[in-house]
């Protein structure tokens, strides 16, 4: 009888232990799911960021890469929830409907060609925005309050990108037809032209951006190396200086970015000290998106690095595209803050939807069937964004 009692008590204890174990496992499951959904790496999570050796000089990720990189493997980071500063700072800078009138911007829907919207934009010294309205063959200048102030006609065949110098000089790139950079003064008068093709750039169609740094004009080839082609006076460079990355807005940094595993949401950012050409860091970054493209990469005057990607959240249809903006530390590339932005799902071709402001934050153009809105976003912590 006594032995039967002991057996029953043992069975009862085992039952209680089993129930407690089952409840603990059930409570832990939502936490594991939340960690996976946030993009944080988990054991066995194929979508989370993974450490990988990266070749910054090639602009692509590789497994046994050579070139300028960390002697150890690159640092890794994963995106965090949107920062308070980024969530609050989404001010509308300007709004324009589609058309050819004053303050309007052109959009082409020619079935015989690629649809186009304004290809590029740039912040102006003292405030305001300059928009490349190539469909209407002009530049449109908007004031700091978003009011259209003036237009400049462009005698160019296929302009696609622009950059503005600190003195107001404008460089407009045509890489496909005229194969030149046209330089315009602050008053819109033509100063001169610079050839696109030359040492380092055999094919003009491979150019991916134009930059003005001080009085120097640079072109980027295939999202990688950058070449000085001349200056803002129109004088072409006799020997094209080569930079291993795009010149950043702080004047001290060269930047590179590239995709490692787009479906898994992984890309890298590399920073190089401009004066010494020493490698500062490479960050392997993971976001919970299947990445379609890198939207922008630059630094503000203080050195904060901004990088944005666009893509589709895991499991969502392609029409649900989103964009994510990250702020990185200039010292080591660690994530300072993250904010989400709407994606552009229309098929219009553009080259520069996002630009970094010298004082911090970014301008981002959002397109709809009615027109285009330029908004300001910021991913810095509230203490540094004020």
Topology, pairings included?
Layout: H1 2-37, E1 54-55, E2 60-61, E3 75-78, H2 84-88, E4 92-97, E5 120-123, E6 129-133, E7 138-142, E8 148-153, E9 161-164, E10 170-174, E11 180-184, E12 190-195, E13 207-213, E14 216-221, E15 226-231, E16 242-243, E17 246-247, E18 253-261, E19 266-273, E20 279-286, E21 289-299, E22 305-313, E23 322-328, E24 335-342, E25 354-356, E26 362-367, E27 371-377, H3 382-385
Parallel strand pairs: 3-20
Antiparallel strand pairs: 1-2, 4-27, 5-6, 6-7, 7-8, 9-10, 10-11, 11-12, 13-14, 14-15, 15-16, 17-18, 18-19, 19-20, 21-22, 22-23, 23-24, 25-26, 26-27
Task: Provide a descriptive summary of the structure in words.
The protein has 386 residues and is mostly beta strands. It has a single domain, classed as Neuraminidase, CATH 2.120.10. Helices cover 12% and strands 40% of the residues. It is built from three helices and 27 strands. Strands 3-20-19-18-17 form a five-stranded mixed beta sheet, with no helix packed on it. A four-stranded antiparallel beta sheet has the order 4-27-26-25, with no helix packed on it. Strand 10 and strand 11 form a beta hairpin. The N and C termini lie far apart (78 Å).
């Amino acid at each position: 009888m006594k032995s039967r009692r002991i057996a029953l008590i043992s069975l009862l204890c085992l039952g209680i232990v089993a129930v407690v174990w089952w409840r603990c496992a059930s409570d832990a499951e939502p936490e594991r799911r939340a960690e996976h959904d946030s993009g944080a790496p988990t054991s066995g999570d194929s979508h989370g960021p993974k450490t990988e050796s990266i070749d910054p000089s090639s602009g692509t990720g590789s497994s046994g890469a050579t070139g300028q990189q960390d002697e150890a493997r690159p640092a890794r980071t994963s995106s965090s929830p949107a920062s308070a500063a980024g969530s609050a700072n989404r001010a509308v800078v300007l709004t324009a409907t589609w058309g050819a009138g004053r303050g309007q911007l052109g959009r082409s829907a020619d079935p015989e060609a690629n649809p186009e919207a304004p290809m590029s934009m740039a912040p102006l010294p003292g405030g305001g925005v300059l928009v490349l309205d190539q469909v209407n063959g002009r530049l449109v200048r908007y004031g700091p309050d978003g009011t259209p102030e003036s237009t400049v006609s462009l005698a160019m065949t296929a302009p696609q990108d622009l950059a503005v110098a600190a003195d107001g000089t404008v460089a407009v790139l045509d890489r496909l037809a005229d194969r030149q950079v046209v330089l315009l003064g602050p008053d819109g008068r033509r100063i001169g032209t610079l050839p696109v093709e030359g040492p380092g750039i055999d094919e003009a169609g491979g150019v991916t951006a134009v930059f003005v740094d001080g009085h120097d004009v640079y072109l980027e080839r295939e999202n990688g190396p950058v070449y000085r082609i001349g200056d803002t006076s129109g004088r072409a460079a006799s020997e094209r200086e080569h930079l291993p990355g795009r010149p950043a807005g702080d004047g001290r940094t060269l930047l590179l970015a590239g995709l490692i595993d787009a479906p898994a949401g992984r890309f890298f950012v590399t920073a190089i000290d401009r004066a010494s050409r020493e490698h500062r860091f490479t960050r392997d970054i993971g976001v919970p998106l299947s990445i379609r493209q890198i939207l922008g990469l630059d630094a503000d005057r203080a050195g904060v690095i901004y990088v944005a990607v666009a893509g589709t959240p895991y499991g969502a249809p392609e029409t649900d595209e989103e964009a994510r903006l990250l702020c990185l530390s200039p010292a080591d590339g660690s994530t300072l803050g993250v904010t989400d932005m709407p994606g552009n799902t229309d098929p219009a071709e553009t080259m520069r939807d996002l630009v970094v402001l010298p004082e911090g934050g970014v301008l981002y153009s959002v397109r709809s069937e009615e027109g285009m809105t330029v908004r300001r976003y910021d991913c810095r912590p509230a203490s540094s964004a004020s």
